[in-house]
Design goal:
Blueprint lengths: L4 E5 L1 E4 L5 E4 L2 H9 L3 E5 L8 H7 L2 E4 L23 H17 L3 E4 L1 H9 L3 E3 L2 H4 L19 E5 L4 H6 L3 E4 L6 E4 L5 E5 L5 E5 L6 E4 L10 H14 L1
Parallel strand pairs: 1-4, 1-5, 5-6, 6-13
Antiparallel strand pairs: 2-3, 7-10, 8-9, 8-11, 11-12, 12-13
Length: 238
């Protein structure tokens, strides 16, 4: 059987010699490959006219984690704790989300990926949860804890696709983010929450496979339930 081709969004960084490079944590590639897909890295900087032809070649797309989205994309103001902003990456990923929705291309969002999907479809974010969300947990547990540290539980709607995929209504997750969804986009349904009420997953009910989560399952591949997320995504893309 032909393995589906799944794009993964990437980010800009600097090499040890200060050369600009396109980067991605290898854990995403390993998780998708283990689940049966051929990963393809999608760089920022793509021209607007080229994104449609790229997406037409992909069987699915994974929106990865990374820096913060510029607040102007969700109608907000700059905040001192908004960091690692790359407006060009924002531009590319917002366009890819919208086209994936229109084309019915299967997609999975992880951490920043959840946030950019929400923003792309008309939702908004808290610029910093501890500063703006009353009684917030500390959701950014890195670098004080390892990336696979299980920081808190997540309650999942029993009638959601996520619950059906994971086979449970509660999971323990890692937590590596300081932002979160303030207002969910109209085309998305919130299907999981942290103990403090922060949205941990959204789904696009009218889409063949449109799912996004706030935690990082690529770092939790020792857990069968987390591998199932990638397996079902790959099956949808196939």
């Amino acid at each position: 059987m032909t393995r589906p081709l799944i794009g993964i969004t990437t980010y800009r960084s600097l090499s040890r010699y200060s050369y600009p490079v396109i980067s991605l944590t290898e854990a995403y590639v390993q998780a998708l490959s283990l689940a049966g897909a051929d990963p393809l890295l999608v760089p920022p900087g793509l021209p607007d006219k080229g994104m449609g032809s790229l997406l037409a070649r992909l069987d699915g797309i994974l929106f990865s984690g990374g820096g913060d989205i510029h607040p102007r994309f969700y109608g907000s103001q700059p905040h001192p704790l908004v960091t690692e902003v790359d407006e060009d990456r924002d531009r590319v990923e917002i366009a890819l989300v919208r086209q994936a929705m229109q084309r019915g291309t299967p997609f999975l969002g992880i951490c920043r990926g959840l946030q950019v999907i929400n923003v792309s479809l008309g939702g908004s974010l808290y610029e910093d949860l501890l500063d703006q969300y009353p009684n917030s947990l500390k959701h950014d547990r890195f670098p004080e804890k390892a990336r696979d540290y299980l920081a808190h539980s997540v309650s999942i709607d029993e009638n959601s696709q996520l619950a059906e995929i994971l086979g449970t209504q509660e999971v323990q997750v890692n937590s590596l983010h300081h932002q979160g969804i303030r207002k969910a986009a109209p085309d998305l349904r919130s299907t999981a929450h942290a103990p403090d009420g922060v949205i941990e997953a959204v789904e696009a009910p009218e889409h063949p496979f449109g799912l996004a989560i706030q935690w990082h399952p690529e770092w939790l591949q020792a857990h069968l339930v987390m591998r199932s997320l990638f397996e079902r995504f790959v099956q949808a893309a196939a």
